[in-house]
Fold each of these.
Amino acid sequence: MSWSTSVTQSNRLIDYIGRNLDIYRIDNNLQSMKHAQYEINHMIRPMLETMRNILRNLILYRMDSLKTLIELRPKVNHCPSTRCLVCKPTIHLVGIFSIAYYQPHVVQKDCRSCDCSSNQHIPMSYMLDYECSKNGWNYNEREMIDMIHELCNISAEFAHFLMHVVCSTKDDPFLIGFVEMIIEENDIYNSQTSNRLNLQLANDLRNLKNKYEQRFNEIHHLENYRKLSNIYYLINNINKYPMIREQLAAVKEGQKIMMKQHEYEIPRISCL
């Protein structure tokens, strides 16, 4: 093959990539469908937990509970961890709110923490602790409601992107998360450490889930789906939330630790 022919074919390939593949360069950052999918997948739990905690604080705010609020305290996982779907969480009282704590399980062939099968475990990219704070409110009631609505609407956008644009899943991960949180809060209320605040939280989550489903259906019936650049705009918006940003930082720090551990595990091949 001659040099000129090779150059011509290379130019054709580059032209094809530019015209046909969903890759964009915005602000000197390479953006792609796969990368957006990767970013969103890591945001699902932080977004859901943030919405739940804002609802907790709205309940406390309306009670005027000694100006007390609950803050999320994400913790880095230093080894690959999972959450068992069968084992019950421990219930801790944070201020006047009962909150479920999940002990991370380490699974290799079998779980070291329980006798449940490995397929009953899901990845746990970071741990979540909670702290009762009396530092005062950073947001008023209206601002917290607006944050909830924005996060709910963006969640629907992300779910639609995952399910109907990149087609990476048939199940709605945000809807699954809402259902799990509602069940969890009802279980806490029905347990021996019952707390009516958890019943209120379960009802608020149920209302939020209904709004989420309504927004998702609205998006699904639109003919013009959001462009990739719009999805990245929403991703950047989510990163502006301190509560979410701190959880994502814990995820990324945990990933760095895992990568270093795997580097040490890979045997080095010496040159002879």
Amino acid sequence: MEVQMSKRMAVLLAVLCVTAAQGVISTVAAQNRTSNARWVVPRTPDGHPDLQGNWTNQTLTTLERGAGQGPVYTPEQVAQIEQGSVARFVAGEQPSDPSRRAPGAGGSVDIAPYNNVYFEFGHRVAVVNGEARTSLITFPSDGRIPAFTTAGESQIQQARDLKRQFEEFDHPELRPFAERCIVSYGSPGGPPMLPTTGYNSNYTIVQTPDHVLIMTEMVHDARIIRIGDGPRLPPHVRPWFGDSWGRWEGDVLVVETT
């Protein structure tokens, strides 16, 4: 079934990609400021910011803003959130009691599949343009994902109607992409490139004058962004991560994906 991305959704995804990247870079810059070191933007031979290296986008900032929240945290709120994260991490580091008694009939033991060695929930609030944001979404101004357009809702309903014709395990194409190891669950590979819920939120970036490649730790998805104004892909060629093109606006790499 052919699904065309609406212009509104394309703009939203582009904004989210830039926002997430700004959150990562700004958080690193904020850490350097607290150490009283003057951070200088590294540059490639052609003069653009050098984005290469290993990064993470794990953050304590949620994708959407909570009800009743303003767009920016106060310093006191940031301290409370970040200190709470450290406290939870320390508590999770404590060893289990080997002498604990077995639960009674019908009881349960709180056993997690992973421990703190694997989890990465983030320890800092994302900072965008010097502000501690209450959501990764900065546009629209309410920090919330916009409602689907009528066309978008129609496409979702068509997909649901198609799926109802089959039982859940009738065909491999009915199973989620992550279950089939095609792309990861969530959206770490993008667009938008969002933090995962707990682990594998690391990225390796390789950059040339005409391409930027972002490899995600989760499922090792690779997203290739072409730089410039070259020809777009034809409509029948539809990569899993879309057709991404970037352009430099000063020191900001703006990426649009359709």
